[in-house]
């Protein structure tokens, strides 16, 4: 008997947590799942709607990258070169990311607000990090040098959807950011408590909780849709929500590195090698820098070049090998004077924590293994939309049932008049 009461108290405890966290964050969780579903196939949607932007007819000879970038900078005034992405697919356009001055009265959705109080030693002309991010992509025909299209993702509907998904349109460190972050944490706790509440005491009950009784009453169907589908999707939703927490909270990121027995490496701790300055020597072209990598580039699905910012900087190459997981890139640094490899950061040589952290975003979005995991992520997030709805329906049914019981109990204790 003591064990029975302990089990019952445990169920009441977890059911209370499950209920109140769901009531507190149910609407936000529903919106996050809905917007997440819309973002799973963003790249594929863009390519399907704008094929001329991404694909061209292959020709015999490609133009040098330096010629392509020079043409882009000439055609788009006041633009500053950020990166160049080249694909192994001969039909793909070259993507030239640019930094273009924006009007002050037109702020991008989700852009962080400038800090009111600068440090005592801050420079007056210092620019926020957001100003150094590319805000325009020119898609260039690698055979003719023609700009086939210009694309500013910040002005698209799906970008607004992403900003709603991440910050409720409020921007980094805004109230919306914290609401989404806490709701994601609540969602993880809801999923864990849901699995605990689902766990049956007997094999007979387990069989009932593994299938939906489609011919049952409306209440039974609502119950089964919530319980059964919740169990089958829980492990995937736990992974999705946990990966979201890692990208949001420092403690979650530190927990990942702790569990993998890895050292946390902050971005500011990563030291980029420098070029050995040679007076009177002209910096090498990007083609020469590519030549220094040889087979490391020819075996790539795509690679992105970041040009040296000053006379001491290096060419930075992010190379994605064929068959590799998205964002599992190798980084190479090329001396802009000698053309030699000044350093590298290979994905395979990183710690387990760094390797997992490097692909957390593809895990969260479902793009980690291409379309199979994208379809899975789409279906899981789509199905998850029923949980807030069925959960509220179950709560209302349970509440009305309790009220009816209270009314019946009161009617039984009413005194009977004696004639």
TrEMBL record:
The chain crosses the membrane at residues 20-41, 178-199, 227-249, 375-396. Keywords: Membrane, Transmembrane, Transmembrane helix. The keyword Transmembrane helix applies. It comes from the Bacteria. Residues 108-132 are annotated as: Disordered. Signal peptide: none annotated. PANTHER family: BLL7967 PROTEIN, IRON-REGULATED INNER MEMBRANE PROTEIN-RELATED. This is PepSY domain-containing protein. It comes from Mucilaginibacter rubeus.
């Amino acid at each position: 008997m003591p064990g029975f009461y302990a089990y019952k108290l445990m169920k009441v405890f977890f059911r209370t947590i499950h209920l109140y966290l769901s009531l507190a964050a149910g609407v936000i969780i529903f919106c996050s799942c809905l917007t997440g579903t819309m973002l799973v196939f963003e790249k594929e949607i863009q390519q399907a709607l704008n094929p001329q932007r991404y694909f061209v007819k292959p020709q015999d000879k490609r133009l040098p990258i330096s010629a392509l970038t020079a043409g882009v900078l000439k055609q788009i005034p006041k633009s500053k070169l950020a990166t160049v992405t080249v694909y192994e697919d001969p039909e793909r356009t070259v993507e030239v990311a640019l930094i273009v001055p924006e009007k002050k009265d037109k702020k991008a959705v989700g852009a962080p607000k400038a800090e009111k109080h600068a440090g005592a030693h801050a420079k007056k002309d210092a620019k926020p990090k957001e100003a150094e991010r590319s805000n325009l992509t020119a898609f260039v025909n690698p055979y003719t040098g023609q700009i086939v299209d210009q694309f500013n993702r910040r002005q698209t509907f799906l970008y607004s959807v992403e900003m709603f998904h991440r910050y409720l349109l409020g921007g980094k460190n805004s109230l919306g950011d914290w609401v989404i972050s806490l709701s994601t944490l609540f969602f993880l706790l809801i999923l864990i408590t849901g699995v605990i509440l689902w766990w049956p005491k007997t094999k007979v009950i387990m069989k009932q909780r593994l299938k939906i009784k489609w011919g049952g009453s409306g209440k039974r169907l609502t119950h089964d849709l919530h319980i059964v589908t919740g169990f089958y999707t829980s492990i995937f939703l736990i992974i999705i929500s946990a990966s979201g927490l890692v990208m949001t909270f420092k403690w979650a990121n530190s927990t990942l590195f702790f569990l993998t027995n890895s050292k946390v490496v902050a971005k500011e701790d990563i030291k980029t090698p420098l070029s050995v300055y040679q007076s009177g020597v002209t910096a090498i072209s990007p083609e020469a820098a590519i030549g220094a990598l040889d087979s490391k580039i020819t075996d790539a699905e795509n690679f992105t070049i970041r040009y040296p910012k000053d006379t001491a900087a290096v060419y930075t190459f992010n190379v994605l090998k064929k068959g590799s997981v998205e964002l599992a890139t190798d980084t190479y640094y090329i001396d802009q004077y000698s053309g030699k490899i000044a350093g590298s950061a290979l994905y395979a040589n990183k710690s387990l924590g760094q390797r997992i952290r490097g692909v957390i975003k593809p895990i969260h979005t479902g793009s980690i293994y291409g379309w199979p995991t994208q379809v899975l992520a789409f279906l899981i997030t789509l199905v998850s939309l029923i949980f807030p709805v069925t959960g509220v329906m179950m709560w209302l049914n349970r509440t009305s049932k309790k009220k009816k019981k209270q009314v019946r109990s009161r009617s039984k204790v009413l005194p009977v008049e004696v004639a």
